[in-house]
Amino acid sequence: MSAQRLRALHVPGDPLVLPNAWDADTARLVVDAGFPVVATSSAAVAASLGYADGEQASPDEMFDVAARITAAVDVPLTVDVESGYGLSALELSDRLAETDAAGCNIEDTDQQEGRRRSASENAAFLAGLKEHSGDLLVVNARIDSFLDARGVEEERAALPDAIERARAYLDAGADCVYPIHVRSAEVLGEFVSAVSPAPVNATYLPDGPDLAMLAKLGVARVSLGTGLWRLAQARISGALSALAEGTSPF
Question: Which SUPFAM superfamilies does this entry report, sorted A to Z (predicted)?
Fold first, then answer.
């Protein structure tokens, strides 16, 4: 089963690396490079469809992309479903099952209402999702406590909330917790220790710990988020600028 394959790859200290894709073509590139799982980036998928991030694209459009990816590759797919597109836990579970997704990434900022869900509210939603999906879906619970933090001191101030939420989400059945955009290795290490032995997802950022350090900290999963999409955008923009100036884009 795809979910079992995906779950087994979450090993603290030997992290699953996810170069997030945004369509069937980039998903094939990920698989061709030897990665055992494909993950989507909601922001990159939305941009490829002509929308801003933050659930501006419809769930039909987003799940259509996911279905196209699962049809194009033979490895598990984990889908970034943002905060669930306003769907109930049952509806979200059904939509993910229809795409043959093995997992999902779901955040605790409610994009429909423009607010942060309380820990108990989000835990209840996660519990409902796991109740309907069971072991057929690997749920990665994203924790947005660090998104507005600037510098180590602000990250440290956000740490207690992140740990409290992580424990609540794990108790609700989440398979993995994702304190997105932690840049301090020290703070991330404390978070990992506080929720051990549960798997922790971290973001691979240019100004954050490198892959070797993330592994040393005990992280079990590493996401690039919009990293590859931004890199592709920069390369294309550079080539177009060269072409516009009358020089070779190659």
Answer: Phosphoenolpyruvate/pyruvate domain
Instruction: Let me know: does 45 contact 99? Beta carbons within 8 Å.
Output: no
Q: Is the whole model's pTM more than 0.90, yes or no?
A: yes
Structure tokens at 7: 């779950």
231: CATH: 3.20.20.60
What is the DSSP track for 87-150? Answer: --HHHHHHHHHHTT-SEEEEESEETTTTEEPPHHHHHHHHHHHHHHHGGGSEEEEEE-TTTT--
User: What's the pLDDT tens digit per position in 14-38?
Assistant: 999 999 999 999 999 999 999 999 9
Residue 249 lies in a domain: no
Q: How many domains does the chain have?
A: 1
pLDDT band at 225 (very low <50, low <70, confident <90, very high): very high
Q: Domain containing 205: what range?
A: 2-244
Per-residue pLDDT band at 106 (split at 50, 70, 90): very high
The encoded tokens of residue 204 equal 């691979």
Q: Which SS3 state, helix, strand or coil, does residue 79 take?
A: strand
